[in-house]
Structure formats: C-alpha cells, structure tokens
Amino acid sequence: MPRFAANLTLLFTEHAFLDRFEAASRAGFTSVEFLFPYEHSPEAIAARLAAHGLDLVLFNMPPGDWMAGERGLAALPDRFDETTAGVETALAYALATGCPRLHMMAGLADGRDSRAGQAYRRSLRHAAGRLAEHGIDLLIEPINRRSMPGYFLDDVDAAADLVAELRAEGLANLTLQFDIFHCQILHGDVTTRLTRLLPLIGHVQVASVPARHEPGTGEVNDAFVFAELDRLGYSGSVGCEYNPRGRTEDGLGWLSACASGRARI
Q1: Cα-flanking dihedrals φ and ψ of residue 63, to 5°?
Q2: What pLDDT does 31 receive?
Q3: For residue 139, what are the β-bridge partners?
Q4: Per-residue pLDDT for 94 more than 60?
Q5: How many other CB atoms are there within 10 angstroms of residue 161's CB atom?
Q6: Which of 133, 128, 121 is nearest to 74 (CA)?
Q7: Do 5 and 33 form a contact (C-beta atoms < 8 A)?
Q8: pLDDT one-digit tens code per residue, 18-67
C-alpha cells in the first residue's frame, strides 16, 4: 500500500490549521503536505511536525497574490524577481521543516506564448539550482483546464517532456508531480502514463473524479491505481488532495480499507 500524506489545506478543515497536524496523526497519517504555510512561521510548522511524529513531504512556493487570482509566477516574464524571492522564502521553510521537495506553480499564461515559455524555463533553472544546493527536489504539476482555466502547464505529456529536457541539461532534481485527478480529466489513461512516466515522477496526488472527493467515490478505480503504484515499485508518497464530502474523519473509510488490504475502496 502506498504511503498516504494528508493534505492539510483541504483535509481536517474542521480544525484551525496548526491543529490539523494532531488531527492527521490521530487519524493514522504519518506524513502531511499542504499548499502554503506562509501565514505561520517555519518554527511553528516544525514544532507541530515534531510534536506529532509527522513528516512533511511537499508544499508550494509562494504563488503571488492568491486572493487576487494569481496562481504562480514562474511563467510570467515580468515577475522573475518575485519568483526568485519566493524560492528563498520557500527554501527557509523547507530547511526548517526537513521538507525534501517543493512545487513551483507556473501561473496563468498562454502556453503558446514563447515569452512565457522562456520565463518558465528560466525560473525552473534558477529554482532547481538553488534547491539542489540543499538536496531538495523541485516539482512541476500540470493542472486541468476545468479546475484552473488559463494555467500555463496544462498537459501531462508536455510537462513530462519538459522535465526530461531540463534533466538532460543537468537539472537532476527536477521531477513531475503526477496528480491522478488532473491526469484523468486532461487525458484519461492514468495507469499507462504512470508506467511510462514513473522515472520522472517525484510525487503523486489523488482525489476522485469528477467531484474531487474521497478516493473510491468517482469514476476511477483508485484501489487499482494504488495497486499499480505498488507493482511499479513507487516508493514515494501519495498526497490526499481532495475535498471531503463531510467531516474529514467520517470519510476515511477508504484509508482503512487500503490498510486492511481489501480489493476495492
């Protein structure tokens, strides 16, 4: 069974953010992820992780003005200085918490715009270089057009090709964040892509399709996908980035089903 990480931005929202670490631990999780920690100090995050025996496996670099609709800066040609500042901010949190990987959001830009493409590659090269100094991986994630219209990186295969291209340049710590929810909406054919792209994948996330609820409640046989991850030898975490249909704790039957080895969830 994969190692599941509770996404504390979406799960356990019945509790204040810093109290979600304890809730996740009580529910049986040993690792967590979240979108953005920046409303709290690195020391506060690190203390909650230590207090509850949790590993932090992933979070995002600053995305710009999220409340104003920004969804990352990396592909925005005129925002490179903010992008590099965000790398330093995220790096401080990663070093304080022992987080081994960071996700850099591309932003809202036309994927056909050559200036955006050049800006994105420049941002990735800079960020990967800085993180490599500390043994930290950089992740990029394609996001479906329905959930985030206008997002620059909206194709799994194109994202994988970009990772391969930049790795060939020497960016060995650049990896693909493979979100089952986004892949199914964008392309389908999830397990074939997992098999083909596994050498490039640094992190996996899951939510049901189409409603983005608990695994096993949508059109994808998530138990089959988890078994495929085991068969393929995937050793990383699977982030639970879904919106619970009710109280988080009431919807964790899928997790106990996986733990007990039942065939379906």
Answers
A1: -100, 10
A2: 98
A3: 103, 175
A4: yes
A5: 12
A6: 121
A7: yes
A8: 999 999 999 999 999 999 999 999 999 999 999 999 999 999 999 999 99
Query: What tokens does 162 get?
Result: 């970009």
Asked if residue 181 lies in contact with residue 211, where contact means CB atoms within 8 angstroms, the answer is no
Radius of gyration of the chain (CA): 18
* Identity of the residue numbered 231: R
Cα–Cα distance, 79 to 86 (Å, whole number)? 11
Average pLDDT of the chain is 96
Helix (H) or strand (E) holding 103: strand 101-103
Q: How far is CA 172 from CA 9, 138, 199, in A?
A: 29, 9, 12
Which region holds residue 176: left if phi is over 0, alpha if psi is between -120 and 50, else beta? beta
Residue 262 has pLDDT above 60, yes or no: no
DSSP conformational letter for 122: H
| Cis bond before residue 63 (omega within 30° of 0) | no
- Residue 61 phi/psi, 5-degree rounding, is -70, 160
Are 186 and 155 within 8 A, CB to CB?
yes
Is residue 186 within a helix (H) or strand (E), and if so which, with residue range?
Answer: helix 180-186
Helix (H) or strand (E) holding 68: none
Residues counted in the chain: 265
Which region, left, alpha or beta, applies to residue 69 given φ > 0 means left and ψ of -120 to 50 means alpha? Answer: left
Q: H or E segment at 148?
A: none
- Catalytic annotation, residues: 141, 241
CA-based torsion, 180, 1, 94, 167: positive or negative: negative
The band of 263, judged by pLDDT with boundaries at 50, 70 and 90, is very low
